[in-house]
């Protein structure tokens, strides 16, 4: 049998050592099959190889250093009388895995899981708002931002205000700097009027000059308002005021002798100097009102909608009582920004509207009246 030389790598990786052992087994089996059965052997004792004539060594080529393995010069002794078991034992004598069972456990250190960044509550809220605005408006991006922005109205600016809740009258003065007078003003409206506390005496009558006019009915989100186009004016205290619009509150914002009426119409006028004068017409339940009927016919149901009335349909003279005596005082707008220096004239005699007409309004606006405000020493004139 030809000598077989196997290079062992005691310091090599476990995988390489296993491969070397398998190669040795294959070579030994090949050698055993090729040689005849030894004639003289002593059981368990391998024959001695001749020292004077060593067999040539067959070496395996060195593995690349880059593989992490180093070449060795150990050889496997061979001879005719060497049993197969001894050859295998000798081949495996220089390895660390001669007779041991080896369990290989591959461990790989898992890569750390990167936590996704958690958006801040403010960011989440902002994103949610944009997404919601986009869903409601059917648009995204700039359109969604526009949908999210509060819409302006003709009854108090861009900031949302209401008649109840966190944005109700008690909070108006804090919603916007321009609304601060709602809380700090000293001549605010509406007020409670008591006949026993008024300054009674003669006063000039209000000169009404109303004519058939065009009107546009607006649902501004706070009330029903009618914008007037035409030559309509009043003259009082030596000044002329032009009619701009009229709108409604329920119950009446003015409290007269302890009573609030079901509805009030505020007719808003302005003079050439920009001063406002408001005529308040109280409405009590009774016969149907012709002017109210015309307005309700063209009343838009959705906030922000406008409906143009037929030309010349409205004549505000039809809304006035025959008795035009009034209470007079200086006050303010009854809605934000609550601007003061407004001349108020509350007609003492009410007109009527039907219960059905009142109910129709309250189905849209059940309550849109500001609470009465302190007089703060103001004098109310009662025109006789």
What does this 3D model show about the protein?
27% of the residues are buried. Helix 1 packs antiparallel against helix 2 and helix 3 (121-137) crosses helix 4 (142-148). Mean pLDDT is 75; it is low at 1-80, 95-108 and 113-154. This protein has helices at 14-34, 84-92, 121-137, 142-148, 172-175, 181-184, 290-297, 355-364; strands at residues 192-193, 199-201, 207-209, 214-219, 224-229, 233-236, 239-249, 255-256, 263-270, 276-285, 306-308, 326-332, 340-347, 351-353, 381-383. A hairpin with a 2-residue loop joins strand 6 (233-236) and strand 7 (239-249). With 384 residues, it is α+β, with helices and mostly antiparallel strands. It has two domains: 14-92, no CATH class; 185-383, Carbonic Anhydrase II (Roll), CATH 3.10.200.10. The radius of gyration is 52 Å and the shape is globular. It has eight helices and 15 strands.
Number of DSSP helical runs: 8
Low-confidence stretches: 1-80, 95-108, 113-154
**CATH level-4 homologous superfamily of the largest domain:** Alpha carbonic anhydrase
H and E order: HHHHHHEEEEEEEEEEHEEEEHE
Characteristic terms for this protein:
globular; Carbonic Anhydrase II; 2 domains; disordered N terminus; 15 strands; single chain; 384 residues; alpha+beta; 13-stranded mixed sheet
List the helices and strands and how they pair.
Blueprint: H1 14-34, H2 84-92, H3 121-137, H4 142-148, H5 172-175, H6 181-184, E1 192-193, E2 199-201, E3 207-209, E4 214-219, E5 224-229, E6 233-236, E7 239-249, E8 255-256, E9 263-270, E10 276-285, H7 290-297, E11 306-308, E12 326-332, E13 340-347, E14 351-353, H8 355-364, E15 381-383
Parallel strand pairs: 1-8, 2-15, 10-13, 10-14
Antiparallel strand pairs: 3-6, 4-5, 4-11, 5-7, 6-7, 7-9, 9-10, 12-13, 12-15
